[in-house]
Each structure stands twice: as structure tokens, then as C-alpha cells.
Amino acid sequence: MKQFRKIIALVFIVFLSVSLMGCKKKVKFEYWNDCTALTSLKEYVKDVTNKNSKDFIPVEDRIAVFDMDGTLCGELFPEYLEYLLLEYRCLDDPNYNASDDLKEVAMQIRESGKNYKTPAIDHYDLIHGRAQAKAFAGMTPENFISYVKTFLERDAQGFRNLKYKDSIYKPMIEVVAYLQDNLFTTYIVSGSDRFICRAIASETLNIPYSQIIGMDTTLVATNQGDTDGLDYQFKIDGSDEVLKGDELWLKNLKMNKVVNIVQEIGKQPVLSFGNSSGDVAMHNYTITNNKYKAMAFMLIADDTERDHADLTETNKRKESWEKAGYTIISMKNDFKTIYGYDVVLVK
């Protein structure tokens, strides 16, 4: 009899364990208002995860891609976070002596911030990318990520009660968790440096490093010098480490995002989230000729009370993106809070 009871107890434990493993966490969306964007997302997920639906998507093909700056986290004030990082590195870091050309780029960032806009220079994203490669060359990826995390502990300019490390939009944290709960594989596909994205978002969003794609600079071995990688072997004696090189490899914007998705993910996404022209190609690739039901969401910065926004530009974007068939997420109308209820915008 005792043996029988033990068997019953064991069966119960196994059944309970399996049940708990299969039990989904319930994302409450406590940071969202009732809105069309959230309703559309929920209806979409319910449909494509239903095995009896004609729109059912197998787990292995549930791919969702997210831009980072302005989509998952704040573009902040007065510049993109990676621009502020370069500015700090070249102008304020007491342990780094920047070259004159790097200081010039950093000063352009600082001066543009006084007018609250991105520098009006053609392809400034490339100028910044090349400067960043030089400014952090020689660091191991691990040391660079550590450097970024230290910078993220700083108070965010233009806000009270906000540090850079906490500048990920709380409503979007819920979206990522909701999709993960419904067995979507979530990727970050950003124009920002891949390692910066890893430092900012990996832990908070539960996205592994291998699912974070971004701008890339070259990587080299300690003793490699100018030798091409095809002619160099990583040394077995322990004298080599992988280091950040001093050249920009790829700025991950526009069509380059599509190229990286094809190369690194190898599947067409079914969901795409962005906020700017740099995400349009990724969106269009997602929703065009897709064998599965697919959607693209554009987040617009239309909240001037809780964040910094250029409404003239925002309204132009909203109109064109609606015509393109993207679902609009309004920070002003759809988010109960952006960074947290205690965060205050300083005007």
C-alpha cells in the first residue's frame, strides 16, 4: 500500500511539473491604455497561435524583429544614446585622450544637442559610426560592454528620476514578454552598435546576445596588425584576444537591416516594430510576399509632456506610414507611462 501511495505521489508530481511548464505567464499590459494598436496585436497573436486557424504559424516561424532606439528605448535628449556615449568618450572621459578628428565629431554632437536635433550633415550616421570604431578600438567586446554599462548608470539628460539604463519603454517591455510567452523568437535589429544594444537591452528584455543584430565595427586579434584574417591564425599561446577594430564594417539601417535579417536569422519575420525611416525596409520585407499573416508596427513620438518630440515631423510620418499599411503606436495616447510614473521631463 505504501509503495502504491509513493507511485501515486510521484505521478502527481510529474503531472504538476508538466502542467506548470506548459502554463503561460500572463502579461497584464499594465502600462498600456486600451487602444487599436494593442488590440490589433493581441488579436493577431491569438489568431496565429491557434492551431485551428487558417493563419496558424508554427513556433519555429514565429519571428518578431524590433528596432531599438525610439522603438524599445528612448532616443532621449539631446541625442541618440550611442551619440552621447561617443561624446562622453571623446570629450569627458578622463582616461581617454581622443584625437582631434574624434573631438571634432564629438563637438558636432554636443553642438547639435543645443538645438535639439540631429546634425544637419549628410550621412552623419556613417560619420558617427566611423568615429565610434576608432574611439573604442583595442577594447575587448566584454570590456566595451562593461564600459557601456558603467555609462548607463549616469542620470539621463533632460529628465528627473531616470538613468540611461532604465530608458527602455515599459510598455514595450510588456510587448516583448508577451510575444516570448506566446513562443515568438524576438530579435533586436538596430542601427546602433551591436554591443551597445547587448549592454542596454539583453537582460531587461530577456533577449540573448545571439538574437541582437546591430551596427558592426571590425574585430581583430591582438597580434593581427594589418594582416588579413585569411592570412592570420588566432594564437594558441594565450597572447591573442579578440578586440574591437578601428573601422566601421556595416551601418545597420534601411536595406542593410533586410540583408542582416536574411543572413543572420535566415527566415522572413512575421512581426516588425520600428519608429523611423531606417525601419521602413525591414517593415516592407516583413509584410511583402510573406507566406504567413504578417504585421508591421510604427511607434510615433507624439508625447511632448513626457518625452521630447518633434510634432511636425511626427505628423508627416504618421500619415505616410498609415498609407503604407503599418499599425501606428502613439506614445501619447497608447502608453500609460513611458519610463515610469516617477520620471519627469525637464523642459
Description:
With 347 residues, this protein is an alpha/beta fold. The protein has 2 domains: 25-76 and 161-215 and 250-345, HAD superfamily/HAD-like (Rossmann fold); 81-157. Helices cover 41% and strands 14% of the residues. The chain is built from 12 helices and 9 strands. A 7-stranded mixed β-sheet has the order 5-4-3-1-6-7-8, sandwiched between helices. Strand 7, helix 11 (311-323) and strand 8 (327-330) form a beta-alpha-beta unit.
List descriptors.
alpha/beta, Rossmann fold, 7-stranded mixed β-sheet, two-stranded antiparallel ribbon, 14% strand
Number of structural domains: 2
* Overall body shape: globular
Following the backbone from N to C, one meets helices and strands in this order, namely: HHEHHHHEHEHEEHEHEHEHE
CATH class of the largest domain: Alpha Beta
> Which sequence of strands runs across the widest sheet?
5-4-3-1-6-7-8
The tally of helices reads 12
CATH architecture level-2 label of the largest domain: 3-Layer(aba) Sandwich
Radius of gyration, in angstroms, nearest whole number: 23 Å
Low-confidence stretches: 4-23
| Terminus-to-terminus distance | 75 Å
Strand content: 5-15%
Fraction in helix: 40-55%
Q: Write out the CATH superfamily name of the largest domain.
A: HAD superfamily/HAD-like
Largest sheet: 7 strands, mixed
Mean pLDDT: 91
